[in-house]
Amino acid sequence: MGIEVSGILGLILLIACVWAIIQIFQSNTPTGSKVFWTVLILILPLIGLIIWFFAGPRSGRTSIR
Q1: What is the pLDDT along the chain (65 residues), one digit of tens a residue?
Q2: In whole angstroms, what is the distance from residue 56 CA to residue 8 CA?
Q3: What pLDDT is stored for residue 14 in this prediction?
Q4: Spatial contact of 55 and 31, defined as CB atoms under 8 Å apart
Q5: Where in the chain are the domains?
Q6: Quick one: pLDDT at residue 59?
Q7: Angstrom distance (rounded) from CA 12 to CA 18
Q8: CB count, 10 Å around CB of 52?
């Protein structure tokens, strides 16, 4: 049962990372920033995704701040 659960979680993480990378490239930030965030998400998928969500480029996303 552990293999199935980790496989589903891995698939969810993959989908989230692909979505984040698409959002990064649709943002109006400079190319260097896009490359930085993309590499961060590719090297550290879960941690990079969390950091991007809180500190990444804002492309039309509303901020609560």
Answers
A1: 556 777 888 899 999 999 999 999 998 989 999 999 999 999 999 999 999 989 887 765 554 54
A2: 26
A3: 93
A4: no
A5: 2-55
A6: 60
A7: 10
A8: 20
Residue in the block written with tokens 């049962």: 1
Q: Tell me the two tokens of residue 9.
A: 């979680």
pTM, 2 dp: 0.77
Q: Amino acid identity, residue 35? A: V
Q: What is the C-alpha to C-alpha distance for residues 6 and 18, in angstroms, rounded to an integer?
A: 18
DSSP 3-state of 37: helix
Q: Letter for the amino acid at 21?
A: I
Torsion sign (Cα): 42, 47, 53, 57: negative
The three-state secondary structure class of 12 is helix
Structural tokens at position 47: 């941690």
What contacts 13, CB < 8 A, 6 or more positions away? 45, 46, 49
